[in-house]
Amino acid sequence: MDTFVLLTLTGFGLGALYFLIASGLALIFGLMDVLNFAHGAFLTVAAYTAWATADAVSGMGGLLLAALVGTATGVALAVAVEFVLIRRLYGRPKEQILVTVGLSLAVPAAVQTLAGADARTFPVPDALAGTVGVLGAQVPVNRFALIGVALAVLIGVRLFLDRTRYGLVVRAGVEDRAMVTALGVDVTRAFTVVFALGGALAGLAGVLGGLYFGSLSPHQGTGLLVFAFVVVVIGGLGSLTGVALAALAVGLTQQYANYYAGGYGDLAVVALLAAVVLARPVPGAPRAAERLRRLLPAPPAARTEGGRA
Amino acid sequence: MTVTSAPTTAPAPGETGPPGRARRRALRPAAVPAAVFLLLALLPYSALEVPVLLDGPLNAPGSLQLLALCLVFAGLALGYDLMFGRTGLLSFGHALYIAGGAYGTRLAMTEWGLTLVPAALLTLLLGTLAAVVLGAISLRTLALGGIGFAMVTLAFAQAGSLLVGRNPGGLTGGEEGLPLHAAGVPEAFVGVANTVHVYWLALGYLTLVAAVVWGVTARPVGRVWQAIRDNEQRVAVLGRDPFRYKLGAFVLASALAVLGGAVHLLVTAGATPHSSTPTFTLTLLVMVVLGGSGTRWGPVVGGALFTFLDQRLAAFADVAEPLLVLGTLFVLAVYAAPGGLVSLRARRRGRTA
């Protein structure tokens, strides 16, 4: 029982981390059709600046300052990338992806050159280093910090999207960008806002990732990004709550499978992904019975027509 | 792909222009590859010294090994372009099949005691079956368009990569990778003195991939792939099932990748876990885009050049991380040469004409 509680809460913490990364990805992709491969790179750089801050200033104040610095780094990087690189390529989604792919290769390499390839320990203040007894399980305190931050972000971003004018533009843009532009709203500014928001969440995730894993390395962000992609595919782009639930499902699956299935949590996540993809009805696709009929030999008339086309 | 000098008249290719040019164009498809093949095949007989680019003469084992690696990557990139450039499928999971080919061949040799060729063929068969299943799942994610495909292939590849790194049952060797087991390998591919045979094998692989890719894309199925890349909906309206064609491209490209993995195993004398990482696929993508996706020679040039730079950059200049330079170069190339290196030549020709 206590193991189960520990696994569940750890899974929640991991899900919170995935949510922070995936929500930014989903927003950016939903609005701009940019699959941001550099998201993991933002996270890595933010984690390193946060580490430098937390290393210099110790204690809880240092961690808060580090979170601030990490978030600011994420915002600065995201805005710079959007402004300098992505903006020139509007309407060319493939090139936009390629640019972020290039960044995702170059930035971790740059980090590795500057900071070395070895993993570093993230200084965790004493207040977050201990454990708390929950239903007989000793759960690390930082899991609760992660869950709390993720909940705050979920509520905050939902308020931003639902209650503010920019949020309205963003939601409308996700739905139908051409229409928003036709109505005379400057969507490009919303692009920058969303990119900055995504960068901020990635930066925050970098700091919390350091807290969760207790260490950081140049390729950590890229590794986490893959799971964020899985979360986005499972959760879809429709709603932030959907992304949050998907992140939770992925985090829990990974933790349970890691413990009960002999350390194959990552494979279990991919199996979950495959199951969701297969179970989800494809919009506009024929039903199973229709497809079965299509597999049977077609009547001769239809076949000759198909051959000529 | 060819740049006509007077676009307003829109002539059918080969019908207009001076007769000599038309004849040259008719000859070129066969003549250029044949000449390149002959040149590459005879390369090991030359002891030419290339001062900066290579450490020793051309036929030194070190140089041949480097060139063989370039050829393998040229072939891998060309196979990847079958999906990316020809069909418009952005896959991030190609490394799964390359690593599958390398590890599968190696394990079939040691675990089941097969010799090289049966081991590679068995791996090819199993890898193709896996590609059919995984490709069918990946191509179903229509809700997110082509990006869903990209993400799902990435997830599969990441699972494979993590599995390799975890070293289940001591099979994959974890971080260390696996050395090429010498017992099942024919004598002709073992040892430094036989590097030239490995080189020819790599050339053979590139030739095979080129023959398959160029041959298939020239056939009607290649036209359908191109049509899917340009406008998938229209293909569906015309009564062709895009899913089946896309799956076909995916499986063919994956089969070529499995075979490439087996050749990679021989060229590098081992299977490395790096070949299973998503980064490996990304480098293939970079090669294809640098050279020019969807073109005849672009992926070949990009693959060979990128590999060469990746291997030699540390030697030319004091660069600790070749990926830093290559990633930056790639980002710049997307802006400066959107059609890749090959397009630069075509563009210049278009300007002078």
UniProtKB/TrEMBL annotation, chain A:
Alphabetized InterPro entries for the sequence: ABC_transp_permease (IPR001851), BCAA_transport_permease (IPR052157)
GO biological process, one term: amino acid transport
Top-level taxonomic group: Bacteria
Keywords tagged on the record: Amino-acid transport, Cell membrane, Membrane, Transmembrane, Transmembrane helix, Transport
Pfam families: BPD_transp_2 (PF02653)
Topology versus the membrane: Multi-pass membrane protein
Localization in the cell: Cell membrane
KW Nucleotide-binding (keyword) present: no
A cellular component term, taken from the record's GO annotations: plasma membrane
Main location: membrane
One GO MF term attached to the UniProt entry: transmembrane transporter activity
Transmembrane regions: 6-27, 34-51, 63-85, 97-115, 144-161, 190-213, 225-252, 259-279
Protein family according to the UniProt entry: Belongs to the binding-protein-dependent transport system permease family. LivHM subfamily.
Name this polypeptide is given: Branched-chain amino acid ABC transporter permease
UniProtKB/TrEMBL annotation, chain B:
Region listing for Disordered, in residue ranges: 1-24
CDD domains, alphabetized: TM_PBP1_LivM_like
Main location as per UniProt: membrane
Low complexity bias (residue ranges): 1-20
Alphabetical UniProt keywords: Cell membrane, Membrane, Transmembrane, Transmembrane helix
Highest taxon listed in the record's lineage: Bacteria
GO molecular function, one term: branched-chain amino acid transmembrane transporter activity
Transmembrane feature ranges: 30-48, 60-80, 87-104, 116-137, 144-164, 198-216, 247-267, 323-344
Recorded topology in the membrane: Multi-pass membrane protein
Cellular compartments annotated: Cell membrane
A Pfam family: BPD_transp_2
GO cellular component term of the entry, any: plasma membrane
Segment forming the signal sequence: none
Protein name: Branched-chain amino acid ABC transporter permease
Species name: Streptomyces chumphonensis
